[in-house]
Amino acid sequence: MITIDELRKLNGRVRYSAMGVVKIGVDFKEFWHFYSDQTPIPEGNIHSHPYAYESKILFGGIRHSIYDVVPIEEETQQNYQARFGRAGTPLTVIHDNIDIIESATFDTYKNDEHYIDHSTLHKIAPLTSKCVTYLKAEPWQNKLYFVVDKDRQYTREEALAQRASESECWEIIRYTLDDDDNC
Fold it and tell me: What backbone torsions phi and psi does residue 160 show, to the nearest 5 degrees?
């Protein structure tokens, strides 16, 4: 298991993501994600990425749910949004009324690895009180990724308003790494 001192030596970007995870990113190619009860994941965070990636669970467990989005004509409480460019740029509604279909679910635990394509809509939920993952990203396919807003009130802005400072992120990382045998 990687130590906090080794993580600090990476000189990566440490931040709190609106998806409810503290992450360390190095050159947009490698990411360490830290999930704990100190970083709650907003409900309904169905999303994709602008890159495909391989992920390994370093400890803990995560449930992955894969979704299909189907545009429909009847009015719904869900819409399908896209972001062109990096986080912080505005979301654009692609389809105003959609149906969300869960097409697959799988659980991963310590040492499990999986691959997610850049176009895969998914959501994650920790199965343990603490979890750490290592993600290796492939080159960006495009600067576009998608978000499903289940209630037309996406919680990203709310989550970002509560984001932790860099020093608070390191404290959350330290907390998450403590006692990993109990996860």
Answer: -65, -35
